[in-house]
Structure formats: structure tokens, C-alpha cells
Amino acid sequence: MTTTVKFECQTRPEGSKPRALRRDGLIPAALYGHKGAESMSLVAKAKDVEILLKNASVNNTLVEVNVPETSWKGRALIREVQKHPWRPDIYHVSLFAVAGQDSVEVVVPVHLEGEAEGVREGGLLEQIITELTIQCPPSQIPEVINIDVTEMPIGTTLHISELKLPEGVTASDDPERTVLTIVEGKTEEPPAEEGEAEEGIEGGVVEELGDVSV
């Protein structure tokens, strides 16, 4: 099921500087057109941007964008969020407008469900891909790609081409890329007991002395 959140913006005043806007509690934003739609320079209240980013993920969540001054209203995806390297300050938000019937490319997380048979038998599971790039209509964006690993034995190698994706969803990544593997666990030899180690050393000394006497 696709998550949709609402987000209201205003057109950005011509000639306004990003730093001055942020001092006034506004965050610069841009809405890029899709298939001919015009791009717009926007601003939004910092508080609204914070709420948006708490409820929406980049390239994964549909956003209902409303720009009252232009009477523009439509759905978009968050394409990029520019932030300060270590402070929580947000510098800029890029949005990408989408049409209802168009296919869009998004990135969704990959989650594993259950405990693999191979793990129960002592094997090790390595998840190589944690995110998957897919194409689908905006209304069919999955929140996550779930993989049931319960019946996967030791020796399993799962490729993207073998994933069971929701209807209308296709993978953009290389179909031969490995998603996960299950291999045999390493068995460690128990350490030698102290008495056995000493016997080995003494035996070696006696043998060496015997060689010298000859």
C-alpha cells in the first residue's frame, strides 16, 4: 500500500537568498516537472519540512504537494534532501512531480522475514542487498520488499531475478545481482588440553636428544 503525505509550499520570492530564507524559518525547495510539466522554485516552512521528512522517505513516498498561489496541486516524490554534514539543518528539498499513470523509478528497502532453515542448521545468512531500485506506477509503490527465508537451506543463493515482486513492479537493478546467500558455518577445533600440550612438547625433546646420541 502506498503512503501519501501532504505538503504545502509557496513560490519562492525572486532574488531571495537561501541563507536569508532559512533565517526567516523557510526552506528552499524545487518541484521538477515530469514529461513537460514546468519546474518551480518554492519555499516551505521549516516546521512543515521537518514533519514531511518524519513521515516520508526519499524516493519511496508519494507527497501531495499544494502550491496555493499557483493553483498547482499534484503528487510528487522526494528526490533529494540537502542537509548540513553534522547538524540537523536542512538546506534544500527537491521534489519530482509524477502523473497518475506513469511509471516511476524508486528505491525501496528489502526486509527478510523468518529464520532460514539453513541458519537453524548452523549455517550463516548474508544479506547483500538491503535496498532495491524498482519501476512501477506511483499508486503501486511498495513500502518494502519482503522476502520469506524460512525454507531456504544451506547453499541457497538468491538473485534479483528470483524475487517475487508485487504486481506492476519490476526491478531496475541487474537481475543477476545476488540478494542473499546461506553458507555453512565455520566449525572451530576445540583447543588442546594443557596436559596433552605438555606431553607433545616432552615427546619432541626426547626424540631430538635421541637423534643427537646416535
Radius of gyration: 29 Å
Question: How many β-strands, per DSSP?
Answer: 14
When the domains are counted, the total is 2
Low-confidence stretches: 205-210
The proportion of residues in beta strands is: 35-45%
Mean pLDDT: 84
- The top-level CATH class of the largest domain is Mainly Beta
What's the story with the biggest beta sheet?
Answer: 7 strands, mixed
Write down the CATH topology of the largest domain: Ribosomal Protein L25, Chain P
Label the CATH architecture of the largest domain.
Answer: Beta Barrel
Coarse morphology: elongated
Task: Explain this structure.
This protein has helices at residues 18-23, 46-55, 117-120, 194-213, and strands spanning 4-8, 10-11, 26-32, 40-45, 62-67, 72-83, 90-98, 104-113, 124-127, 131-136, 145-148, 157-159, 170-171, 178-183. With 214 residues, it is α+β, with helices and mostly antiparallel strands. The protein has 2 domains: 4-99, Beta Barrel (Ribosomal Protein L25, Chain P), CATH 2.40.240; 105-183, Beta Complex (RNA Polymerase Alpha Subunit, Chain A, domain 2), CATH 2.170.120.20. A hairpin with a 6-residue loop joins strand 6 (72-83) and strand 7. The longest helix has 20 residues, at 194-213. The protein is elongated, with a radius of gyration of 29 Å.
Which key terms come to mind for this protein?
214 residues, alpha+beta, Ribosomal Protein L25, Chain P, RNA Polymerase Alpha Subunit, Chain A, domain 2, seven-stranded mixed β-sheet, four-stranded mixed β-sheet, 4 helices, 14 strands
